[in-house]
Amino acid sequence: MEKACKFFIAMFICIMSPRCKSAHATDALFPGQALSGNKTLLSKNGAFQLGFNCLSPPCSEFIFGIWYVNSSTCKPLLVWAIPGMELRFGVCDINKNTYLTLDPWKSTFSLSYGNLQLTSLPYNSNIMWSSATGMKDISSSAVAVLLDNGNLVIRDQVNSSVLFWQSFDNLGDTLLPGGWLRPNGQLMYSAKSNVSASISSSLSRNANQPKEFTILRNVDCSTANRIHYSGTFPSWMDFHEDEYSLLLSSNSDLYVRLDSDGTLSAAKLEGCGTLLWSSLDSWQEISYSVQEKSHSKLVLFSIKSKLVLTAKAIGAQPPASTSVDAHIDIIFTRFKCAPWRTIP
Ranges for the Bulb-type lectin domain (predicted)? Predict the structure, then answer.
């Protein structure tokens, strides 16, 4: 606890002090160099920081990731992180966290042979994460740089236009200004786990409908308990389309985030997360599939009409259909792991 407190105090002083930022931080990590403890990379504009921090002080667990720190009034905002084991390896373990949490003083983030990697002493110095870019022909020329838009890249030291890897191609749950969404595939993910339930969501977009998105929500890691629904980004959101991607304008002051419950939202970067838009306003269910055990309690949700029904059933089968007005699509989730609202 004492070590965690010292770490947080040191991080807080550096985040709040421009002098500390300019005197001790760099935006680049060269071969053989490493980050550990409270050492960080800082983008040249001072807006983004790569290193260990925590979501809610006082800190007991630390996450290694990219943080938006360009605010004197808001706490650091996590915008990219190394996911937990169950997300990286596809293993459903409800005791794991969404993000990989480690001891900053016993963990090392380094660039070795053109490969970014995170190792941890408590895990026998095993590689906990890797960019998987290690190649002999780039090992000596590669450098990792945290750009002003929050994109962490591995690029050539001489020709900065030659990129070997970038975090914008490996999205977590957040899309930053200047970032992009590729069509036809999983683009963003988010997950939440506790002792009773596991909930995850992923987002993809349709190449034929630029501003249309589809979200898959998965409860308890069951292939039979998945929900698909679609929505559309609002017209005022500053997206631009190229041949392959939907680009969020680099001049935008908002970011897009996918929550574990499947909600997609847009908020202001410099507004301490002030909400500007939520997919709850426009989504529609495409399909759902649920298999519940006889002892499960069911909570029924209506997305289209925002009408909420509740049911506690033992041994009941999901109804084939329900008519309220024209038609209401209903989503079934387990009572204990429904994050959307609390049912007494």
Answer: 26-167
Least confident residue range of 78-87, 205-214, 298-307: 298-307
At 193, the pLDDT band (50, 70, 90 cuts) reads: low
Distances (CA, A) of 330 to 7, 88, 125, 269, 338: 47, 31, 47, 34, 14
Other C-beta atoms within 10 Å of 316: how many? 12
Q: Nearest to residue 257, comparing CAs of 50, 68, 54, 61?
A: 68
Neighbouring-strand partners of residue 83:
99
* CB atoms inside a 10 Å sphere around CB 16: 12
Size of the chain in residues: 344
Burial of 230 (0-12, 13-18, 19+ CB in 10 A): middle
Confirm if 165 and 151 have CB atoms less than 8 A apart. Answer: no
Rounded CA gap, 17 and 167, in Å? 27
Let me know the angle formed at the C-alpha of 238 by 235 and 241, rounded to the nearest 5 degrees: 90
Domains annotated on the chain, with CATH: 1-170 (2.90.10.10), 291-337 (no CATH)
Longest CA span, the chain: 66
